[in-house]
Write a structure and sequence with these properties.
Blueprint lengths: L1 E7 L3 E5 L4 E8 L20 E8 L6 E6 L48 E5 L4 E6 L24 E4 L56 E4 L3 E10 L4 E8 L3 E6 L3 E3 L4 E8 L4 E4 L4 E2 L3 E6 L5 E9 L2 E12 L3 E6 L3 E3 L4 E8 L2 E7 L3 E3 L3 E5 L5 E9 L4 E10 L3 E5 L4 E2 L5 E7 L4 E10 L2 E4 L3 E2 L6 E6 L11 E10 L2 E12 L52 E3 L6 E3 L4
């Protein structure tokens, strides 16, 4: 706030800034001059000019005040014939001149009236205050006929119209014979009258009158009298003071909280003395009033700054921008095998108030993690309540079931027979196969892998394809292997094969002409025709043994062999 205070004793003009407040003027009219002496006899003193204090109305534009300063009235000439009266004081309205002393004797002239002080206002185009000057004092006459004092400027009269007619004070009366002059009237709205002259004792013994005080007035349309009043015996003056306030600012926002993506209006109005107005946050210079829509992405404070003659005023509005809720739900593993566990994690951004996860978890903090171990493929869902919006996300955890496998077949097979295998499997979504192996006399031989349909479930039957030969087999084993995302399972069955290796016992006839117990046995020189025996109750080749030494020929191969004894 800018403050101004100054007293003017000479005519001057002062420009008052627009919106100036507490514009106070004290206006003093000039005092009247003292009358002249007659020898040692005292004249009348001049009357005091009127003083008043006023408040000038505040307006929204600048105005110029012009001061007409009144001067004190002149002192009457003392102790001589035709003693001149004092001159009237100048100002917006001059004081009247004091009257002359008579041509006879040596009396004193009347004092001049004080000039009026006035304030002219460019806004109203008129004099809005006039302070009346004091009247001049009467001159002294002989012997001991003192002059009377001049009257003070009159009190204040306010009206809704203009100040009364401004005029100079009247001239004091001049003595025509032997006596003193009257005091001049004070200038004012209108001027005071001049005082009548006095006479010596020999001429009538009449005291000279002091001049009348000038009238004072003010225009109540533009000023207000504070009630303070007094008088001034010297030159007139005007004291002026005022303050220039900083700009008056109104700054508001339509809502203190929004969600990101929404807009809000800020409104402002600035009055008073102002030279620049601006709003920060990239808005810049603005007019004295307006409304602007803004859509910031985060909480923000807007400050309006208005600068003028009286200083700077700043106002601010704050806006809280709530962020939309977003959530993410993930698992550390996309899949697990039943019986395993993994971690479920969730993160939430924005202004969120609560969260819940289903199935089976319930209310949770808006950010967190937990261990899960579902027994089947499960879709987890998170629901988030937010200030601006609700958020949702889901994730599916695949749970692979461990595969199962079962295989069954005949309890046993006779040599040369085929059988039926029955299989059943679940969750074999990668591979399902049967691996056969055959046990011969010469060792175990793997058969070709039998691929089966995958799926859940997979079941069926198939006929064995056992490759029989002279060496067996004596048993066959089947391993069913089920392989899935959930692991691997296998089962083995073994089917024994009934192989007849024991022929019926039979008697071999003795050779002719040989002894039964003869050892060693010699083949006769003559060709001996032995018995031919057919052995047909065995499945595979066998070794022939006898309880006695014997030579045999097998299948007419012309090769006789001695066999082992039983």
């Amino acid at each position: 706030m800018a403050n101004f205070s100054q007293t003017y004793t000479n005519n001057a003009s002062v420009t008052i800034p627009a919106f100036a407040e507490s514009v106070v003027v004290t206006v003093a009219g000039a005092g009247g001059g003292r009358g002249g002496f007659d020898a040692q006899y005292a004249p009348g003193d001049g009357g005091g000019g009127r003083i008043g204090t006023f408040v000038i109305n505040t307006i929204s534009s600048s105005r110029t005040l012009t001061f007409g300063i009144g001067s004190v009235g002149g002192t009457g000439v003392s102790g001589q014939s035709n003693a001149a009266g004092g001159g009237g004081g100048g100002g917006v309205a001059s004081g009247g001149t004091g009257g002359r002393a008579g041509p006879q004797g040596s009396s004193g002239g009347g004092g001049g009236g004080g000039g009026a002080t006035g304030v002219y206002d460019s806004y109203s185009g008129s004099w809005i205050i006039v302070a009346g000057g004091g009247g001049g004092g009467g001159g002294a006459a002989y012997p001991n006929v003192p002059g009377l004092p001049g009257a003070a400027g009159t009190g204040w009269a306010g009206s809704g119209g203009t100040v009364g007619g401004i005029s100079s004070g009247g001239t004091g009366g001049s003595c025509p014979s032997d006596g003193s002059g009257g005091g001049g009237g004070g200038g004012g709205a209108g001027g005071g009258s001049g005082g009548s002259n006095g006479f010596d004792v020999s001429a009538g013994n009449v005291r000279a009158q002091g001049g009348g005080g000038g009238r004072s007035g003010y225009n109540s349309n533009y000023v207000s009298w504070t009630g303070a009043t007094s008088t001034n015996t010297s030159n007139g003056y005007v004291s002026l003071s005022y303050t220039v306030p900083p700009p008056t600012v109104s700054f508001s926002i339509s809502s203190s909280t929004i969600c990101r993506g929404d807009s809000v209006s800020i409104s402002w109005s600035v009055s008073g003395p102002v030279s620049s107005i601006s709003i920060d946050q990239g808005i810049g210079t603005v007019g004295s009033s307006g409304t602007l829509f803004v859509a910031p992405t985060s909480s923000i404070t807007y400050t309006l700054t208005a600068t003028g003659t009286g200083g700077t005023t700043s106002k601010f509005v704050s806006l809280t921008v709530r962020q939309p809720s977003n959530t993410s739900l993930t698992t550390d593993n996309a899949s697990i095998i039943r019986g395993q566990s993994t971690t479920l994690r969730w993160t939430t951004t924005g202004d969120s108030t609560s969260a819940s996860i289903s199935p089976g978890i319930g209310s949770v903090n808006i950010n967190g993690l937990t261990t899960i171990s579902p027994t089947e493929t499960t879709t987890y869902e998170i629901y988030v309540d937010g200030v601006c919006n609700d958020a949702y996300d889901s994730t599916t955890l695949i749970v692979y079931q461990p595969p199962t496998a079962d295989l069954s077949g005949p309890e046993s097979l006779d040599y040369g027979q085929q059988g039926i295998l029955s299989y059943e499997s679940t969750h074999a979504d990668i591979k399902l196969e049967i691996i056969p192996s055959y046990t011969y006399k010469t060792g175990t031989v793997l058969g070709g892998v039998i691929s089966l349909p995958t799926g859940n479930p997979s079941n069926g039957t198939l006929q064995t394809q056992i490759p029989y030969n002279d060496n067996g087999p004596f048993s066959v084993s089947y391993i069913i292997v089920a392989m899935g995302n959930g692991g691997q399972e296998s089962k083995q069955i073994t089917i024994p094969i009934n192989v007849d290796e024991t022929p019926e016992n039979f008697l071999v006839p003795e050779s002719e002409d040989l002894f039964k117990d003869q050892e060693p046995i010699y083949t006769p020189d003559a060709t001996i025709t032995s018995y031919e025996i057919v052995i047909d109750d065995i499945d595979v080749p066998v070794e022939i043994k006898a309880d006695k030494p014997i030579l045999i020929e097998v299948n007419n191969d012309d090769s006789w062999k001695q066999i082992r004894e039983l």
